[in-house]
Every structure is written in structure tokens, then in C-alpha cells.
């Protein structure tokens, strides 16, 4: 606490004013903390919410935990969620693409992000006096840095999860496309073919199987087939799936053969993958230049020229 006084004293000379400011900040912090705890207790003890919790007890344990957390943090999340509709829609889409389907996932994400922004600088303040040879003026810099970590690291982790899941969907899409072509050519309808492909890919590619099963569930619930397919493209964010969805929507709109369209798209997609593989193979020579220069050539020069250099050194 004395180090904190010294830091503030470097900006303001009057110690009495500093103490009053500190007392006011401490009182405001305690009031906000008490208000937050009160809101959490009120929401957890609300009879209506308890009845809803009883109805949701049949859900899996992970979903129940997410629901309870979202129910408790709901009033707090209203203050930290984005106010712009575009940003809110974008973040909801990112959460879906990362695989978080719970309605409370976005609230938990932003509440956790806000807690990190506040908790990490407070942790620095608590641990600062036990750090040897620490300067007081560096405390503000480290506090701001840790606050920035709490602000940006969750977004980076979310982006990495989205990229990882998109890569998983990309790896499973060729198998799904081939199975879909086989099922449609065997006489199954589009909905039955999608369900069959989802069942076959449940073990090898569970993410893609879940997305396909979701499409079939939406169609069974009464959503139009075209809208269900467009929802699939929006949830995954994969360009290959967007192309397939556009092809299927156009085929259903004009009444052409679905099997012929899928076979043509599969052939084009196979050619596209082959061209991508050839492109990566062509880049391999250029990419190998840097490791060869940094790793192989120095060793080669040591082996080839090293004995000659040693002989010259021995002569002199």
C-alpha cells in the first residue's frame, strides 16, 4: 500500500487529497463488489429462475453448468456486451463458428473478459511489493500491460478456436462430399442423404457430422430447406461449404438433378484440391531455401573448409 501511495504522490503533491481519493476509490470498489454479489444472490434465489432450472435438469452436466453461469451473470453481462448490433452479430457468429452453441456463451465470454481486465492489474498490485528491485513507476506500466492482456488474449484465443474448427471442417469435407454423392446416386433424398452422412462421419469428423445433423434437425423442425442450408454456410464459414450450399440452393430452385450437380461439384472440388496440392508443392522449393541457408550450409562449410582452416592455423 505504501508503494501505491508513492506512485500517486509522484503525480499529486498533497498527501491529504491522495488519501481522500484512495478512500473514495476503496468505498466505490466495495460498493460495486457488494452490489454485484447481491445481484448474483438475487438471481440465484429467484423462484422463477429456480423453476426454469428444474426444467433444465435433464440437460447434460456441461450445459447445465453453462446455463447456471449465464443465469447468474446475465444482469452483469448486460453492461459489458457490445451495444452495436453489427458487433454483437459478428461475435455471435464467431462463437457459433468456434463451437459454442449455448445462448449464454457470449455473456460468459464478455464477463470473463471483463474480469480478466480488472483482476490481472489487481494481481500485479498485490504481488508488486514482493518483487525484488522493483520500481514504483513501473507498476502502472505493468498494470496497463496486464489489463491489455486480459482485453486482447480472449479474442485471440477465440480466433484460434475458430481457425482450428474451420480446419477440422475442411479436413472432413471431401469425405462428406463423396459420401453425399454416393447416397444421392443410390436413391436417397437430400435430407436422408445428409442424415446418413452425418451418422457415418460421427466418429472420424464429429464437428462436420454435428453440423450436418443440425441441418437435418432444422429441416425436421419446419425451417425451409434453403434456409437450413444457408444457416449451415453461416455457422461454418468454410468457402467450400458455401459453394456447395449455393449449388444445392440453385439446383432446388430450378428443379435440376441433385445427383448430377453433386457429381459435377465433386469433380470440380477434386480438381481444385489437386491444384492446391500442386501449388503447395511448387512453393516447397522456395520455402526450403531459408532452412537450408540457416541450418545445412553452415554445417557443410564447417565440414568442407574446417580442415583446411585448421591446417593454416597450425602452420602459423
Explain the overall architecture.
The chain has 316 residues and is an all-alpha fold. The protein has two domains: 2-162, no CATH class; 167-272. Helix content is 84%, strand content 0%. It has twelve helices and no strands. The chain starts with a helix and ends with a helix.
Q: TL;DR of this structure?
A:
The protein has helices at 2-9, 15-44, 47-55, 61-80, 85-98, 105-127, 137-185, 190-200, 206-220, 225-236, 239-254, 258-315. With 316 residues, it is mostly helical.
Percentage of β-strand residues: under 5%
Instruction: Note the overall shape.
Output: flat
Radius of gyration: 30 Å
Number of E strands: 0
Number of helices: 12
Helix-strand pattern: HHHHHHHHHHHH
Features:
about 325 residues, mainly alpha, about 85% helix
SSE inventory with pairings:
Blueprint: H1 2-9, H2 15-44, H3 47-55, H4 61-80, H5 85-98, H6 105-127, H7 137-185, H8 190-200, H9 206-220, H10 225-236, H11 239-254, H12 258-315
Helix pairs in contact: 2-4, 4-6, 5-7, 6-7, 7-8, 7-12, 8-9, 9-10, 10-11, 11-12
Amino acid at each position: 500500500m505504501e508503494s501505491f501511495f508513492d506512485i500517486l504522490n509522484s503525480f499529486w503533491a498533497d498527501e491529504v487529497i491522495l488519501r481522500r481519493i484512495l478512500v473514495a476509490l476503496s468505498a466505490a470498489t466495495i460498493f460495486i463488489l457488494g452490489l454485484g454479489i447481491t445481484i448474483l444472490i438475487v438471481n440465484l434465489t429467484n423462484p422463477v429462475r429456480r423453476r426454469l432450472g428444474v426444467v433444465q435438469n435433464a440437460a447434460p452436466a456441461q450445459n447445465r453448468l453453462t446455463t447456471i453461469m449465464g443465469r447468474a451473470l446475465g444482469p452483469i453481462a448486460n453492461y459489458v456486451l457490445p451495444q452495436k448490433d453489427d458487433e454483437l452479430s459478428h461475435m455471435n457468429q464467431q462463437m457459433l463458428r468456434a463451437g459454442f452453441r449455448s445462448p449464454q456463451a457470449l455473456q460468459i465470454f464478455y464477463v470473463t473478459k471483463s474480469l480478466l481486465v480488472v483482476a490481472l492489474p489487481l494481481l500485479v498490485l498485490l504481488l508488486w511489493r514482493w518483487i525484488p528491485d522493483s520500481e514504483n513507476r513501473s507498476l502502472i506500466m505493468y498494470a496497463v500491460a496486464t489489463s491489455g492482456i486480459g482485453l486482447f488474449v480472449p479474442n485471440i484465443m477465440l480466433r484460434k478456436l475458430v481457425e482450428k474448427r474451420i480446419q477440422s471442417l475442411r479436413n472432413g469435407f471431401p469425405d462428406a462430399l463423396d459420401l453425399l454423392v454416393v447416397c444421392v446416386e443410390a436413391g436417397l433424398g437430400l435430407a436422408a442423404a445428409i442424415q446418413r452422412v452425418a451418422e457415418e462421419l460421427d466418429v472420424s469428423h464429429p464437428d462436420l457430422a454435428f453440423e450436418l445433423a443440425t441441418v437435418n434437425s432444422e429441416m425436421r423442425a419446419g425451417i425451409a430447406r434453403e434456409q437450413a442450408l444457408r444457416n449451415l454456410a453461416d455457422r461454418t464459414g468454410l468457402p467450400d461449404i458455401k459453394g456447395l450450399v449455393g449449388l444445392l440452393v440453385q439446383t432446388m430452385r430450378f428443379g435440376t438433378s441433385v445427383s448430377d450437380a453433386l457429381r459435377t461439384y465433386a469433380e470440380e472440388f477434386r480438381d481444385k484440391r489437386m491444384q492446391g496440392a500442386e501449388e503447395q508443392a511448387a512453393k516447397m522449393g522456395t520455402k526450403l531455401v531459408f532452412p537450408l541457408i540457416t541450418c545445412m550450409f553452415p554445417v557443410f562449410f564447417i565440414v568442407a573448409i574446417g580442415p583446411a582452416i585448421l591446417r593454416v592455423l597450425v602452420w602459423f
